[in-house]
Design goal:
Layout (H helix, E strand, L loop, with lengths): L1 E6 L16 H4 L5 H4 L11 E6 L12 H15 L12 H15 L19
Antiparallel strand pairs: 1-2
């Protein structure tokens, strides 16, 4: 169920449709609160009220933790360096070893002592 705050005199929406908490009424000691919120003058708010509107409830986006965000960066850097592991890439043995070490360090980023607050990002080979 979506609700929208509107100006009573014009019907103008004052916000985006949203889900109101199911326990709104009891929180404010209002029984039958749905009947009361269409005109908020009883709480000193003139010319405004909440009305039920059509639509789907907004989808809450998952919140990523700092560890998840850091791991996503590491995975992105790994993907960007995949080319260095192809068998026909024109790298010297020494350069190949540097790229392997870089990629290993990225894969092990979560094992660092300060992860995720203090990360020593490996330096990409030139």
């Amino acid at each position: 169920m979506l609700w929208q705050l509107k100006k009573l005199s014009t019907g103008e929406p004052l916000n985006s449709p949203q889900v109101l908490p199911e326990n709104w009424g009891p929180i404010f000691g209002m029984s039958g609160f749905i009947d009361q919120i269409s005109d908020l003058s009883f709480v000193g708010i003139e010319d405004q009220g909440w009305f039920q509107v059509e639509g789907d409830a907004p989808v809450a986006l998952p919140v990523s933790t700092p560890a998840e965000l850091a791991w996503e960066v590491a995975k992105s850097l790994l993907a960007a360096s995949d080319w260095s592991m192809l068998p026909d890439v024109p790298l010297t043995k020494g350069d190949k070893v540097l790229w392997q070490a870089y990629r290993k360090a990225l894969r092990e980023i979560r094992l660092q002592v300060g992860f995720p607050d203090n990360i020593n990002w490996p330096i990409k080979p030139a």
